[in-house]
Amino acid sequence: MTQKVAEYEPRILIISTLTCAYPGADNAGQLHLDHNPHAYNLRVMAPVIFPEEFYVYCFEQGFDGIIVMACGEECPYPSAYKTLAKRLDKLYEIMKNGSFAQLSARVKDTYRTMGKRGISSDRLKLTAICTVCAQSYVREINEMTEKLKLLPPIKECLSDASQGDN
Question: Using the 8-state DSSP alphabet, how is residue 44 labeled?
Answer without folding.
Answer: E
